[in-house]
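Here is a tokenized protein:
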Amino acid sequence: MSFTGGEATTYRTDHVIPRHRMRWLSGSPSVRILLGVATLVVAALTTTGPGLSAAAPAPIPPAPIRPAPAPPPTEPGGLSPLLADTTFTSVGVVGGAIPGGGPLTVTFGRDQRVGLDAGCNQHGGRATTVGDRLRIGSLISTMMACPSPRSGADRWLARFASEPLTWHRVGPVLALSSPRQTVILTERTPMR
């Protein structure tokens, strides 16, 4: 601000604002703050220099993809608490299909018991987890005869469960993977 001939003026690079036009600024501090912020924003948006461009903002890099958290540690020979007392039903199979269309139902108990059903007979046994590995022991099953194509469900289930499986759970979704197939399951809400 300068005083020239009794008139206060503020100099900007492009023009001079007479004092009588600035009176409305002198009464309210919030108006002055708002005008100052607006001036800084306009200056920032219109300033160009080495490496700066007023045409478009710099692109925002995509967020990194983080892997799902590792399952919590379990006692040797135990079952992860993420699986205990849950029941899951398959919604899809990658790398093949369940004979007869399934679905595969897997029920984990607290005491390492597991129940499996792929659409024909019910199977039961013990399951243990170590890290992201799920091991299902020898299975016992009912001996009901099922019509084709469900008759192949028991053979498919026995083969799938006999291999070391990798498991990953994210919320209500569980993925069980063998070397040949991955079964995607969702948790069933317990009925009360």
Observations:
- The mean pLDDT is 78.
- The chain is about 15% helix and 30% strand.
- Helices lie at 23-27, 29-46, 153-162.
